């Protein structure tokens, strides 16, 4: 829940900054960019962007503690990205 709140606060600050500097037309770009950035980092940290052979090699060479830490970090990054993506979609279609 803490990481969702961080994502909400980050999107709120991004909306305020975008409205203050550029206006309404850049809100979707800023919040969507932040959301895609954190979602990309989550995919990168989870190991989803590697081939099957590399994933199997990583699975056999790392301990379960390292795997759990990697999964936790990628889940936290994804939780930060979702509020930003929701705000971007809301501003794209409803405003």
Brief descriptors of the model:
95 residues, mainly alpha, 85% helix
Summarize the structure.
With 95 residues, the chain is mostly helical.
What are the SSEs and their pairings?
Elements: H1 2-21, H2 27-46, H3 52-61, H4 64-94
Helix pairs in contact: 1-2, 1-4, 2-4
Explain how this protein is built:
There is one protein chain. By secondary structure, this protein is an all-alpha fold. It has 4 helices and no strands. The relative contact order is 0.21.
Order of helix and strand elements from N to C terminus: HHHH
Radius of gyration: 16 Å
Are there runs of 5+ residues with pLDDT below 50, and where? none
Number of strands: 0
| Through-space gap between termini | 27 Å
Tally the helices.
Answer: 4
Structural category is: mainly alpha
The proportion of residues forming helix, as a percent range, comes to over 70%
The chain-level mean pLDDT equals 94
Determine the strand fraction and express it as a percent band.
Answer: under 5%
